[in-house]
């Protein structure tokens, strides 16, 4: 389906070497796919001077070299191809299965979420691993995936008292989003589980396991399973789940 509404995207400058293409200001897979569509068309047209494309929830930042193309020239090139933006683009993507120990010491907020949602902790865990989550964007810290959408019953605002340090590998939720920490960092989200699998490793090429447009599936495993995780077990997991 081609876009008939001419309001989006609109463009604005971000400094002297980046342009933001702004789409509808909502979080939705349809908007994300329009952004992915635009990103792939820009790559296909190989516009001179563009050095990097950064997709986010509802916009695409286009970084360029002003010595090779001027701001107005780049806007003209982008407008030439924006008419073909579509939300039903077929983009190559993958589903990554992550082993996750839910609840207990690995998911400190599961019981609280269950109480607020009028569910049991087991029901919350089942809802969290019953579906795949779309990766909207990568950001905040290196390789951190912003995914969604979780069940409406589990959607709560961020905690009023953020934690100063949350362990790498922690799976957390807030509003409709799911995130996986790629390094230790502060957080105000609700902690639901932990994965021993590396989502980001700066020594790998590419360093990030996930890209915008991919899907994540949280597979429940025991605490003993994650405690015995090592390089060989990760290879076995990938052979079984991610090949």
Q: How are the secondary structure elements laid out?
A:
Elements: E1 10-13, E2 18-22, H1 29-45, E3 50-55, E4 59-64, H2 71-82, E5 95-102, H3 110-117, H4 121-128, E6 132-138, E7 145-148, E8 163-166, E9 170-174, E10 177-180, E11 185-187, E12 190-194, E13 215-220, H5 223-227, H6 231-241
Give structural notes.
With 243 residues, the protein is an alpha+beta fold. It has helices at 29-45, 71-82, 110-117, 121-128, 223-227, 231-241; strands spanning 10-13, 18-22, 50-55, 59-64, 95-102, 132-138, 145-148, 163-166, 170-174, 177-180, 185-187, 190-194, 215-220. A 7-stranded mixed beta barrel has the order 5-12-9-10-7-6-13. A hairpin with a 2-residue loop joins strand 9 (170-174) and strand 10. Helix 3 (110-117) packs across helix 4 (121-128). The chain is elongated, with a radius of gyration of 20 Å. The two termini are 32 Å apart. The model is unreliable at 1-5 (pLDDT under 50).
Strand order of the largest sheet: 5-12-9-10-7-6-13
> Span from first to last CA?
32 Å
Share in helix: 25-40%
List low-pLDDT spans.
1-5
Q: Could you say which overall geometry the principal axes of the C-alpha atoms support?
A: elongated
What string gives the helices and strands in order? EEHEEHEHHEEEEEEEEHH
Mean pLDDT score: 93
Secondary structure tally: strands: 13
Structural class: alpha+beta
What proportion of the residues form beta strands (DSSP E)? 25-35%
Major sheet: size, sense and barrel closure?
Answer: 7 strands, mixed, barrel
